[in-house]
Design a protein that fits this description.
The protein contains 9 helices and 17 strands. It has helices at 72-75, 97-100, 143-162, 180-189, 204-210, 243-246, 270-276, 288-301, 314-325, and strands at 7-13, 21-27, 33-43, 61-68, 83-86, 89-91, 111-112, 126-130, 134-136, 170-174, 193-198, 214-217, 230-235, 250-258, 279-280, 307-311, 332-336. With 337 residues, the protein is an alpha/beta fold. This is NADP-dependent alcohol dehydrogenase. Keywords: Metal-binding, Oxidoreductase, Zinc. InterPro entries: ADH-like_C, ADH-like_N, ADH_Zn_CS, CAD-like, D-isomer_DH_CS1, ER, GroES-like_sf, NAD(P)-bd_dom_sf.
Length: 337
């Protein structure tokens, strides 16, 4: 038998000046890797953080397996021709304490976007990916809708599904954007009462159509008095909220999840935390079984991102990232090969 064929690929990278730069590369599949021909990739706000780095951009990829490494058949059900998705994480070790407890997202030896495999990215034609961080896409989900679920969908699913929030709870969603519009759908379909807070009136109808029970405009408000208390809050806005406005509507023992990657501080005093019995929980993407469950649930429940598509070209990447940067994307951009 011959060795691996591998793949020559083109990838769109960031650069010191922030210009999108096309680059080429080659990858042979490692023993536990698959080669995936990329067909679609979501455009996430986090890609913007790496625009000035010499690395392949894109981490919401979907594509077709074209080749597998020598151990893939023995270790998994992945086969050539499968449609798969990949996200923030590139590989889990499978043997550290976190992995053995089913918390792969806390793997001590994981590799992930931004710090590993910087020669490749899902804004490109192909990648080599470890099967530990690869996911089959259910037939019910189209490829253009699957991309944003691999990061955006998984980010909002994890708090709702894995932290013991009971069915029927009142869940606040701050912001109707790339994350928020998915959070509304997941929470509503999971049997929660979704309370949406938005800066303007303009997204009320869309939020209600997506499954919100209540909608409140926050711009210019000094108080949100009169709103029934909420049990958990997902912060999906691009800027840190004024917690003095929201603290009074949090139930005792409420969970607060800041989900947008931001360096801004969320201002709460120890007294706020003590008197409110509040828990602020840092959460990114859940473990492997959780992401699989998210994809199954989205497929069965018909949950899909609202997307705008762009060509998988230098110009397409630039246009999509500029639109996202300007806050004009409704609500997730997807690059299409």
């Amino acid at each position: 038998m011959g060795g691996p064929v591998g793949v020559d690929f083109t990838v769109f990278k960031g650069s010191a000046s922030g210009t999108i730069v096309p680059a080429t590369g080659h990858r042979d599949p490692g023993p536990t890797e698959a080669i995936i021909k990329i067909t679609h990739c979501g455009v996430c706000g986090t890609d913007e953080h790496y625009l000035h780095a010499d690395q392949g951009l894109g981490h919401e990829g979907v594509g077709i397996i074209t080749e597998v490494g020598s151990m893939v058949h023995a270790l998994s059900e992945f086969r050539v021709g499968d449609r798969v998705g990949m996200g923030w994480f590139h590989k889990f070790c499978g043997h550290c304490d976190a992995c053995l407890r089913g918390h792969q997202n806390r793997c001590a030896n994981k590799t992930e976007y931004g710090t590993a495999d910087q020669d490749q990215g899902c804004f490109g034609t192909a990648v080599a990916w470890d099967i530990s961080a690869l996911f089959k896409i259910p037939d019910e989900i189209s490829s253009e809708h699957a991309g944003p679920l691999m990061c955006g969908g998984a980010t909002v699913w994890h708090p709702l599904a894995d932290f013991g929030i009971p069915v029927g709870s009142r869940v606040g969603v701050l912001g109707v954007g790339g994350l928020g519009h998915l959070a509304i759908q997941f929470a509503a379909k999971m049997g929660m009462e979704v309370v949406v807070f938005s800066g303007t009136e303009s997204k009320r109808q869309q939020a209600m159509e997506l499954g919100a029970s209540e909608f409140y405009v926050t711009s210019g408000k000094k108080s949100l008095a009169g709103i029934e208390k909420i049990d958990a809050m997902l912060i999906t806005t691009s800027v840190a909220p004024d917690m003095a406005l929201y603290s009074p509507v949090l139930a005792l023992g409420a969970l607060v999840f800041p989900l947008t990657v931001s360096t801004e501080h969320i201002k709460l005093s120890p007294l706020d935390l003590i008197l409110g019995n509040l828990r602020i929980i840092g959460s990114l993407i859940g473990p492997t079984a959780s992401v699989r469950a998210m994809l199954r649930f989205a497929g069965k429940q018909g949950i899909k991102p609202i997307v705008e598509t762009f060509p998988m070209t230098k110009e397409g990447v630039e246009e999509a990232m500029a639109k996202l940067r300007e806050g004009k994307m409704r609500y997730r951009g997807v690059l299409v090969a």
